[in-house]
Structures are given as structure tokens and as C-alpha cells.
């Protein structure tokens, strides 16, 4: 089937084109194809690259390209396949048929770090994003709704998206006063609640004008359970763009704050997890963060820098956001510190020691290795001469390190590691079967970098193994 055949087969349905079929766009496509109060024909567009073509082919063959521990993904994909209202392509001409275009593409930050992984400098390039907007502007209808979900520097919709789209319309001799452009950032949480983080969660939105904001609101009400999760309209797109980077900068700074205290706790022989849980009983402090191996994923690692860059380059401020930049720098150094902590606690050299990493993704129960702190942690161990291998039930190939993690835990443990590191919060690593499997191994060191193990599990494991937990002092 080609795009025009798909459109003909869905004649009469509004067409929603999703630009980008990554971790956000692919699941967003599912949610729109299973709209609560609408019946859409959904076309996902990816780049004409090897990875993009592979994603498109997989989706059209009936194999969803994203692996995650959320049963709704297979359920929703099955419904969409049965309805025949979801299609993928690399052909940009489909934007000409779109009633709504949802922008879910990357906007990256390039970091420059020193030898301790501290942030030395960074740069933001808008060129790939601009080219994506030019593609839309070269094909779209003059009355289309363009909804930007990508996390962008505040000022992007006004200073980049609107002029590019309107220029594209003008070049084709089309009117520009009917175009609607809005911003509503995603809060997608890959994992067991992947779909619900889009469909059953609060949304902030805005438009370049009232008509645009109204159009965004009307569309979102068809795909989100707004009866339970009301929408929040902000005054302009600068505000909603700022809301996204502010909420992620707050969380990144909170984590960086916990890092400093975890090191003090280790020096004082204090279980910081116990301390934080005690503090969290106070309602005003119930979001105090735990320490860990590091911050990963696509948002917290870069959004504070997007905000700081925007202040200097789009908003016109004299300076960046120093505390936000410092938080990123502290968080980027956490994996290196975690590796040095292990080196100090292990009685012998790590050279030639076999180290098994349990989990390589940046977040529990997710197959996403983008900017995973485990990558830096692993590189540090390799630099110390260790022999490192990994297990991850959600990741069959780890492209950043050209490594293929074991899929079966017994196979990984069969290599008789000297050290087992719990490096990702997959629920599998906390269940009784895993604890028994570890107890069945020869004496070794178990290093919990994220505080996943419960106290009684630590006690059981210590009957046979050496167990250390980052941030728990000498517990």
C-alpha cells in the first residue's frame, strides 16, 4: 500500500500526520489512531535513512518498532491494524493531505566535557529542526494545524516555526492568515504507563494566537481524557515552551542536589535513602530525589541547557541560567563517581575483573539507551581494564558501545562475574527469582547503584556476597 491508497481507504477521515516515529512520535501515533473522541487516519513520517526506513517498514508489516513494558501498546497497535487507520512512510508529500501535523522530532544539544565528564561548553543547532519545518511549509495546506510537541528553546514557535511555515505558504502563493500553530509539550514516560502518559495525563498548551490555541484545545480534547485530566492553556507559546524546560530543569537540579548529599552520607556512614524517606513524609518535601548512577534519557540531560541557551540567544538576556547549567554538569559526572566508588570499595584492582551490568537503559522497564548514564559508567570501567558485559531484557543491541546484552539472566550469570552491578531499575532485578539466582552464584561483589534492593534482600545477599549500595553509607 502506498500513501495515496491509504488515504483513499480512509476517505472522509481527518488526516493527522506525525513527524518523527521515535519514542514519542510512534506512541503518539497509536494514541491518535485510538482517539477517544475522534476517528482519524494517522500517517507517521520518518526520515529517509536506514533507521527511518526500518521503522517505517516494521510498522507497516504489523510489528511495532518500540519495545516497552506497557500492554496497551500492543493492544492499541492491534486495534489500529484492524481498523487500517495507521500507516508509515518516508514520503514528505503526505503533509499536503494533513489536517493536523504533530511535530515529534529531536532537537539536540551538543555537549563538550572535560576528562571528568564535567560540562565545559555546549552548543545548540536549530538547523535540522528548521529543515523539518521547511519540509512541512513546502507541502502543507494553508488551514492546517501544526502542533509542536518537541521540547524546544523558548521562543522557537514565534521565531522559527511561524516564519518558516508562512514563508513556505507565500512561496506557493497561498494565504497565511488561516494557518494555526500551537505548542503542547509531551510528558511521555516510557515504561509500564507509556500510553497513559500521553492519553491520561495533564497537558499544557498554547498557540501563536487565539485561533491557534482554540484549534489545539479542540484537537487535544479528542485524544486526551480531559474529563479527568483538564488542559491548562498558557498565554503564548513562549510560556508553554518555558514550562517544559523549567519543569525538567527543576527535576535535574533536584537530582544534582541529592548527589552532593549522597556523598556526605557515604562519608558519614548514613543511609540517605532512609533519610530521604523520612523527610518525604512532610508533604512540602515529598518529591526530594534519591541519588543514583546518573541522569539519563533525552530530557533531563539537555533541557536545562536549552533554557539557558534560549535566554541568551532568543530571549535577549545578558546571561544564561548558571544553576541549571551547573546541575547538568554535576549530573553528568555521577557515572564517573559511581565507578570510582566501586574502585575504592573493591579490595583488588578492577583490571581483568569480569563485571556484569544489570540494565543498560536509562530508565527501568524501558528499552531506551539514549544518553544512558550506564554508557559513561561502562566506559569508565573499561578504562580501568575491566571486562564488562551486560544483561537487559529490553535491549538486544547497545549501539553506543557496540555491545549485545544478554537477554536471559542465567546466561549472563553463567559467565561467573566477579562483580554484578545493578545499573537500571528494571523490576526484574528486584524479584525473588533474581535474588535466588544471585544467591546461587559463587561469592562475588554486588553493587547497587540505584538503591533498588530492599533491606531484607540486602541482608539475604550478604550471607554469601559482599553488597554495597551507592548512597547508603556502610549499611
Report the count of strand segments: 15
- Report the total helices: 17
Please tell me the total number of domains: 2
**Mean pLDDT over the residues:** 94
Query: How are the strands of the largest sheet arranged?
Result: 3-2-1-4-7-8-9-10
Secondary structure elements and pairings:
Layout: H1 3-9, E1 15-19, H2 25-33, E2 41-45, H3 50-60, H4 71-83, E3 86-89, E4 100-103, E5 109-113, E6 119-124, H5 127-137, E7 145-148, H6 156-171, E8 180-183, H7 196-199, E9 203-207, H8 210-223, E10 231-233, H9 237-268, H10 272-279, H11 303-315, H12 322-332, H13 334-345, E11 354-358, H14 373-383, E12 387-391, H15 409-413, E13 419-422, H16 432-439, E14 445-448, H17 455-462, E15 466-469
Parallel strand pairs: 1-2, 1-4, 2-3, 4-7, 7-8, 9-10, 11-12, 11-13, 13-14, 14-15
Antiparallel strand pairs: 5-6, 8-9
Produce a short descriptive summary:
By secondary structure, the protein is α/β, with parallel strands linked by helices. It is built from 17 helices and 15 strands.
Task: Describe the model.
- With 475 residues, this protein is α/β, with parallel strands linked by helices.
- The protein has two domains: 3-243, NAD(P)-binding Rossmann-like Domain (Rossmann fold, 3-Layer(aba) Sandwich), CATH 3.40.50.720; 333-469, Rossmann fold (3-Layer(aba) Sandwich), CATH 3.40.50.
- Helices cover 41% and strands 14% of the residues.
- It has helices at residues 3-9, 25-33, 50-60, 71-83, 127-137, 156-171, 196-199, 210-223, 237-268, 272-279, 303-315, 322-332, 334-345, 373-383, 409-413, 432-439, 455-462; strands at 15-19, 41-45, 86-89, 100-103, 109-113, 119-124, 145-148, 180-183, 203-207, 231-233, 354-358, 387-391, 419-422, 445-448, 466-469.
- The strands form three sheets. The protein has an eight-stranded mixed sheet, with helices on both faces. It has a five-stranded parallel sheet with strand order 12-11-13-14-15, sandwiched between helices.
- α11 packs antiparallel against α12 (322-332).
- The longest helix has 32 residues, at 237-268.
- It starts with a helix and ends in a 6-residue tail after the last strand.
- The model has no long low-confidence stretch (mean pLDDT 94).
Amino acid at each position: 500500500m502506498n500513501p495515496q491508497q491509504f488515504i483513499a481507504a480512509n476517505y472522509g477521515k481527518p488526516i493527522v500526520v506525525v513527524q518523527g516515529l521515535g519514542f514519542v512520535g510512534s506512541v503518539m501515533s497509536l494514541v491518535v489512531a485510538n482517539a477517544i473522541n475522534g476517528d482519524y487516519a494517522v500517517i507517521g513520517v520518518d526520515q529517509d535513512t536506514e533507521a527511518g526506513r526500518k521503522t517505517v517498514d516494521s510498522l507497516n508489516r504489523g510489528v511495532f518498532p518500540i519495545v516497552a513494558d506497557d500492554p496497551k501498546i500492543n493492544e492499541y497497535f492491534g486495534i489500529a491494524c484492524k481498523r487500517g487507520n495507521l500507516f508509515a512512510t518516508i514520503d514528505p508529500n503526505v503533509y499536503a493531505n494533513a489536517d493536523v501535523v504533530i511535530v515529534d522530532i529531536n532537537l539536540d544539544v551538543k555537549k563538550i566535557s572535560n576528562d571528568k565528564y564535567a560540562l565545559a561548553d555546549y552548543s545548540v543547532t536549530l538547523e535540522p529542526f528548521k529543515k523539518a519545518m521547511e519540509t512541512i511549509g513546502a507541502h502543507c495546506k494553508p488551514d492546517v494545524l501544526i502542533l509542536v510537541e518537541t521540547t524546544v528553546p523558548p521562543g522557537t514557535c514565534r521565531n522559527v516555526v511561524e516564519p518558516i511555515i508562512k514563508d513556505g505558504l507565500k512561496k506557493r502563493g497561498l494565504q497565511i492568515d488561516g494557518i494555526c500553530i500551537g505548542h503542547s509539550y509531551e510528558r511521555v514516560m516510557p515504561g509500564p504507563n507509556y500510553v497513559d502518559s500521553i492519553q491520561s495525563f495533564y497537558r499544557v498548551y498554547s498557540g501563536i494566537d487565539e485561533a491557534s490555541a482554540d484549534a489545539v484545545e479542540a484537537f487535544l480534547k479528542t485524544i486526551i481524557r480531559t474529563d479527568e485530566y483538564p488542559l491548562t492553556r498558557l498565554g503564548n507559546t513562549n510560556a508553554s515552551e518555558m514550562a517544559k524546560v523549567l519543569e525538567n530543569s527543576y527535576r535535574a537540579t533536584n537530582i544534582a542536589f541529592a548527589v552532593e548529599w549522597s556523598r556526605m552520607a557515604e562519608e558519614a556512614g548514613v543511609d540517605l535513602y532512609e533519610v530521604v524517606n523520612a523527610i518525604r513524609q512532610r508533604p512540602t518535601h515529598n518529591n526530594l530525589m534519591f541519588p543514583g548512577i546518573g541522569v539519563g534519557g533525552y530530557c533531563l540531560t539537555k533541557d536545562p541547557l536549552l533554557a539557558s541557551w534560549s535566554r541568551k540567544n532568543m530571549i535577549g538576556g545578558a546571561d544564561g541560567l548558571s544553576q541549571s547549567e551547573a546541575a547538568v554538569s554535576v549530573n553528568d559526572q555521577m557515572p564517573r563517581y559511581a565507578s570510582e566508588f566501586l574502585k575504592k570499595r573493591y579490595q583488588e584492582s578492577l583490571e581483568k575483573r569480569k563485571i556484569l551490568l544489570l540494565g543498560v537503559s536509562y530508565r527501568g522497564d524501558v528499552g531506551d539507551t539514549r544518553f544512558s548514564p550506564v554508557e559513561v559508567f561502562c566506559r569508565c570501567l573499561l578504562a580501568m581494564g575491566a571486562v564488562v558485559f551486560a544483561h537487559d531484557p529490553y535491549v538486544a543491541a547497545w549501539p553506543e558501545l557496540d555491545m549485545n546484552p544478554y537477554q536471559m539472566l542465567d546466561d549472563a550469570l553463567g559467565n561467573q562475574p566477579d562483580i554484578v552491578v545493578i545499573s537500571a531499575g528494571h523490576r526484574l532485578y528486584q524479584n525473588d527469582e533474581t535474588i535466588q539466582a544471585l544467591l546461587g552464584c559463587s561469592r562475588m561483589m554486588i553493587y547497587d547503584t540505584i538503591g533498588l534492593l530492599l533491606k531484607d534482600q540486602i541482608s539475604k545477599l550478604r550471607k554469601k556476597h559482599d553488597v554495597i549500595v551507592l548512597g547508603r553509607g556502610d549499611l
